[in-house]
Amino acid sequence: MARIVMKFGGTSVADLDRIRNVAARVKREVEAGHEVAVVVSAMSGATNQLVKWCQELSPLHDAREYDVVVATGEQVTIGLLAIALQTVGVEARSWQGWQIPIVTDGAHGKARVESIDGSLLIERMQQGQVPVIAGFQGIEPARNRVTTLGRGGSDLSAVAIAAAVKADRCDIYTDVDGIYTTDPRIVPRARKLDRIAYEEMLELASVGAKVLQTRSVELAMKQRVRVQVLSSFEDKPGSLVVDEDEIVEQPIVSGIAYSRDDAKVTLRRVPDRPGIAAGVFGALAAANCNVDMIVQNIGADATTDMTFTVGKADLARAQDTLEKARAELGFEAILADPEVAKISVVGVGMRSHAGVANTMFRALSEKGINIQVISTSEIKVSVLISAEYTELAVRALHTAYGLDGPAA
Ligand code: ASP
Ligand code: MG
Hints:
Elements: E1 3-8, H1 16-31, E2 35-40, H2 46-57, H3 63-70, H4 72-87, E3 92-95, E4 102-104, E5 113-116, H5 119-126, E6 130-134, E7 137-140, E8 145-148, H6 154-164, E9 169-174, E10 195-197, H7 198-206, H8 214-223, E11 227-231, E12 239-242, E13 255-259, E14 262-271, H9 276-286, E15 291-296, E16 303-311, H10 315-329, E17 333-337, E18 340-346, H11 356-366, E19 373-377, E20 380-386, H12 390-400
The structure holds aspartic acid and magnesium ion.
The site of magnesium ion (MG) has 3 residues, from loops.
C-alpha cells in the first residue's frame, strides 16, 4: 500500500467525460489499496477567461480581488470531481485551499506557500476518503484573504500537498506521457526518459521545457518528493523525477531544451570602468526586467560592448529604461534583436565529463549556425542563436549527443 497524490491538469478535466475518466483512474488506485489525495486544476481555458475579465474591467485591478476571481476555476473542478467519484462509489470530499489550510504569504497573484498542515487530510485518507483539493489556491492568514500561487501553480500545490501528507509519490497527470529528451514535435526520434534527476528537470523547466512548473520542481527537490509525470489519456508508465543517486546509468546529456522567449540587447561602446555593470543591471532590476545571459568583452579605446538577454515581454521596458540612463552610463547605442533562440543541453553527467560544450559547438558549426552568446552552469550549456535555426540546432544536437531513439 502506498500514499499517492494524483494531480490532474486543465486538459485532463476539460469536460465532464474527462472528469469521469479522472474519477475512473482515481478509483483504480483506491481499489488497489492505496491512500489517495487528488489535486486538480481549473478546466482548460477557464483561468485564462477569468484573468481576461479582470483585465478588461481594469488593467490595474486590485490583486486581492484578482485572486478571488481566478481561484474560482479550481472550485468548480473539485466539486465536479467529488461528485463524479461519489457516483462511481468512491467516498470523496472537496477541499479549497483555505479549508486545509494552505498558508501562503501575501504576494497576491504569485503567493509562496509557507506551510500546510497535512494532518486532517491524512486522517481522512486513513478513513478511506479521497480528498479532492483545489490546486493553485492558498490563504493569507494575517488578512484572511484568498491567494493564488501564479500561473501553472497547481503543480506546486500538488508537490506541496505530497510533502505535507508524506506521500510516497506525486503523480502529475497531463496531456503528454512523460519527459522527453527534447520536444518530440521537433525531433520525432526523441525518447521518453524513465528517470530524470531533480536538477536536470529544474534546468530543463527553466529553459523552456514546459511539462512541469519550475517552482514545483524546486520544491520537489528541496522536500525530496518523488514526482512522476504521466499521461491522463493513455495507460503507460511515465517519467520519474528523482534524486540523482537513483539513476544508475547517467547519460552525459539528458535533454535539450529551447526557448524563444528571450530577446538580445547589445550596448555599443560602453565606457570600460568600474560601476558600469552595476549601473546597467541595477537600472534593469529596478524596472523589473529579468536579465539572463550576459557577455562583456575586453574593450579597445576604453570602451566595450555589452550583450545580454531579457524576456521578450520586458524588451520595450528594458530599452526605455536604458535610453533614460544613456547620458549617465555613456554608451553609444542600444541594439535590440528579438529574433533569437536559446538552446540548452542539460545533464548531470557533465560534472564528470570534459568536452561537452565542444561537442555542441562543433555540431552547430557543421550546420553553419553562428553562436552569438554562450553561458554555462555545472550541468548546462546554453547558446543563443538566430531564431530561424531553432529546429535545425535542436535536431543536430539531439543526434550529436547520441539521444536519437529508433526511427518513429
Ligand atoms: N488554473 C491555473 C492556471 O491555469 C493553475 C494551473 O492550472 O496550474 O494557471
Ligand atoms: Mg500545467
